[in-house]
Amino acid sequence: MTSVAGEAWFRDEALQRVLSLLNADGGEGRVVGGAVRNSLMELPVADIDIATTLLPEAVVERAGAAGIKAVPTGIAHGTVTLVIDGKPFEITTLRRDVETDGRRAVVAFSEDWQADAERRDLTINALYAAANGEVVDLVGGLADLERRNIRFIGDAATRIAEDHLRILRFFRFFAHYGNGRPDADGLRACAAARTKIATLSAERVWSEMKKLLSARDPGRALLWMRQVGVLTEVLPETEKWGIDAVPALIAAEQALGWAADPLLRLAAIVPPDAARLAKLAERLRLSKAEAASLQAWANAPVIKDDISEAAFDRLLYRHDPSGVAVRLKLALATARAKAEGDFEEMARTARLGKLLERVAKWKKPAFPLSGADALAAGVNAGPRVGELLGKLEQEWLEGNFADDRASLLARLTNLAKP
Fold it and tell me: Running along the chain, 418 residues long, what does each successive block of 10 average in pLDDT?
């Protein structure tokens, strides 16, 4: 018998209190989905979702009687969140699909565990843990988990027709949990339905892609997405640019201890074209910070690895250091991939690494003068103020920030003279 009864997360007092509440007086509740999957794969367990035969109103009533806070987060769809000591547990009534259109589903509440399992997307996401910790597998998820096989429940095309986002979820879960070649039926179904991705909201698409790009190594998933035409549907910018830089980037991340950064992975597979990236950000509804990050990278110059420290500092002053860092990381990853047995690339790798360290320590110096100084020196308000300050700032920059405020004021006063 497969069980999670001994796991610390399952023995948690708050969770046991919720399960006792749901399993009393003829009701039944089981932990479902990611918590069970991750526990069996010896991966960290985060959110804990619970399925129950009880109707949402009954869950709220029982929670109230037990002094547990109930939040109707999606009560129309059968979901109530119970909060104990600040810890949330999402409770959803068993459901069966009545009608689907590829974007949303009309559901009916049920007491049928088999029907609830079969309406889910992937076999590894439909594993339940009963109140005693025993894992209940109604769709072959345990065998797939053992093989790290990402497989749709039942007919793959039918599952995708119910919700087109499942195309991206298939590859996302393959990136995080899959091994070998993706399930052939799933691949064929994703390829056949790939144009349906355009019917989904941009927010849902980017959310899935961001999660996929956050995997420890999304390279194989991206490769298969490209093979079947899904990647071009989501990121047409990659079509002529490719994903060849990804393996080197992943190797550099793992060797150098870089955190998995979805935006850095995205930068590796799209061209550094500011205009195209602005359209990408708009199309996928990236956050302002995410869009700005891509723009900083696109606007950063290509950096020669033998640049002097002084010249590099001037470059950092003129450009967003975060964008410069992305340029350097991508260049460093490529150089590392070429470095084995190539002394020139090994030296280049070392130089790029030092530049990246310099970026991390960089603190932009403040130009000592302001518009108020120009006016005080007798410069009339208007374009002349900006011209003189720009000239002095450039001289200060070329002097590697050495001039102090007093010397700059003296030159400003001299330039201000009629």
Answer: 94 96 96 96 94 95 95 87 94 80 68 94 97 97 97 96 96 97 97 97 97 97 97 95 94 96 97 97 97 97 94 95 97 92 89 96 94 90 91 92 92 85
For residue 72, the enclosing domain spans 1-147
CATH number for position 170:
1.10.3090.10
Q: Are residues 10 and 115 in the same domain?
A: yes
Q: Quick one: 329 and 396 in the same domain? A: no
Which residue shows structure tokens 């987060």?
73
Rounded-to-integer distance, Cα 279 and Cα 277, Å = 5
Please state the pTM of the whole predicted model.
Answer: 0.89
Same domain assignment for residues 86 and 224: no
- 210, 234, 258 — which closes off a domain? 234
Question: Which tokens sit at 32?
Answer: 């479902």
Long-range contacts of 389-398 (CB under 8 A, 24+ apart): 391/415, 393/367, 393/369, 396/367, 396/368, 397/314, 397/317, 397/318, 398/314
